[in-house]
């Protein structure tokens, strides 16, 4: 099952909106977030911390680690609501 959404993320003092979708696989879920035209997968690992995967390895661009952390922080806040 998929749900589409806009994810508001504060990064470098500016509010950005990223397109995303939540995909569930049984008891597991993944967030697919579009950053600079490429889709990155955010999922929880065995320690319940988010890790980031890219399904577009060939076209992968370097993304600022601070942006990735801002997205993870936003996902963690939303998970507590």
Structure notes:
The chain has 81 residues and is of the alpha+beta class. It has one domain (2-79). The protein is 19% helix and 52% strand. It has a 5-stranded antiparallel β-sheet with strand order 1-2-3-4-5. It starts with a strand and ends with a helix.
Brief descriptors of the model:
81 residues; alpha+beta; five-stranded antiparallel β-sheet; 1 helix; 19% helix; 52% strand; globular
Mean pLDDT: 90
Instruction: Please indicate the percent range of residues in DSSP E strands (runs of 2 or more).
Output: over 45%
Give the beta-strand count. Answer: 5
Question: What share of the residues lie within helices?
Answer: 10-25%
Overall, the morphology is: globular
Please describe the biggest sheet, giving its number of strands, its sense, and whether it closes into a barrel.
Answer: 5 strands, antiparallel
Radius of gyration computed on alpha carbons: 12 Å
Q: Order the strands across the largest sheet as they lie in space.
A: 1-2-3-4-5
pLDDT < 50 stretches: none
**Helical element count?**
1
| Head-to-tail CA distance between termini | 21 Å
Taken in chain order, the helices and strands follow as EEEEEH
Number of domains: 1
State the secondary-structure class. alpha+beta
Detail the topology: elements first, then pairings.
Elements: E1 2-11, E2 14-25, E3 28-35, E4 38-44, E5 50-54, H1 65-79
Antiparallel strand pairs: 1-2, 2-3, 3-4, 4-5
